[in-house]
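Morning - zinc ion inputs below, output right after.
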Amino acid sequence: MDPRLQQLEMISEHISDERLGRYSEGRLEEPDLGEVEEHLLICEQCCTRLTEFDDAWGLNG
Ligand SMILES: [Zn+2]
């Protein structure tokens, strides 16, 4: 089996927009911070969403 598929099956839920937004702003604290960083390591989908948050802040700032 593709090891990437095994990792995907471990993901029970994705990071919410609210948490991802706070992470992008650097306002997320432990233990949420650790959970989000760990999730981002294995979830390409949430990584892509995070870059969209970062782009949004870039446009505003
Ligand atoms: Zn995810």
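Note: The chain has one domain: 16-60.

O.
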